[in-house]
Design goal:
This protein is mostly helical and 200 residues long. It folds into 2 domains: 2-103, Cytochrome Bc1 Complex, Chain D, domain 2, CATH 1.10.760; 116-198, Orthogonal Bundle (Cytochrome Bc1 Complex, Chain D, domain 2). The chain has 10 helices and no strands. The protein has helices at residues 2-27, 33-38, 41-44, 63-75, 83-87, 92-103, 116-130, 152-163, 171-184, 186-198. Helix 7 crosses helix 10. The protein is globular and about 45 Å long.
């Protein structure tokens, strides 16, 4: 089953990259940004709102964070299945244009299960430990991603990648995460994930 899912995802990506290549042939380097962004829909959903738990929503993403993430994929320092190859297919100007486009799209929080008690605790912990950088549902002005309303499995996998060194963790974030775990324990992290899953 997992193998079939991977094959379907790969086929969708190849189709999307093919669409992108066709758009560049038809329109040259000045292809409309909406046409460039449409190539992302196969994995990230229409207008950047993900429909699958392994892929993040990129609607309302900070343009700075979008560009930083794409650069990390291009440099091979952020863990990925296919994004490293896809990111290298865009010019910097195209990445900047898509960053602005996705940053202006409305974010639709994912509807998913959550524990109400933990989500309530998680809201308090977010206010105390995370809100300074992760300002609600975006767009975030700085270098932090949108957490509220993201797929919980994606957030957990991304966090594990950071903890285990497969993705850069900003120094400031590590300091706050270490403090949260020291004071609140692993239950504090669980509460945060349930709050983000609640979507508000």
């Amino acid at each position: 089953m997992m193998r079939l899912a991977i094959c379907i995802l790969f086929a969708a990506t190849v189709f999307s990259v093919g669409q992108f290549a066709g758009a560049r042939l038809a329109h040259g380097a000045d292809a409309p940004v909406g046409l460039l962004a449409a190539t992302c829909a196969g994995c990230h959903g229409p207008d950047g709102n993900s429909s699958g738990p392994a892929t993040p929503t990129i609607a309302r993403m900070s343009p700075i964070y979008f560009i930083l993430a794409m650069d990390e994929y291009r440099q091979g320092v952020r863990n990925s299945t296919i994004m490293a190859r896809i990111a290298r297919g865009y010019s910097l100007a195209e990445i900047q244009a898509m960053a602005q486009w996705f940053g202006s799209r409305p974010l639709l929080p994912v509807v998913q299960p959550f524990d109400a008690r933990l989500a309530s605790l998680g809201k308090d912990l977010h206010e105390r430990y995370c809100k300074k950088c992760h300002l609600g549902s975006g767009p975030v002005a700085g270098r932090a991603g949108v957490l509220i309303g993201q797929w919980s499995p994606y957030l957990r996998a991304s966090f594990n990648d950071m903890v285990e060194g497969r993705r850069p963790m900003p120094t400031n974030m590590k300091r706050w995460v270490d403090r949260l775990v020291r004071i609140e324990g692993r239950e504090g992290l669980r509460a945060l994930f349930h709050y983000y899953a609640r979507g508000r």
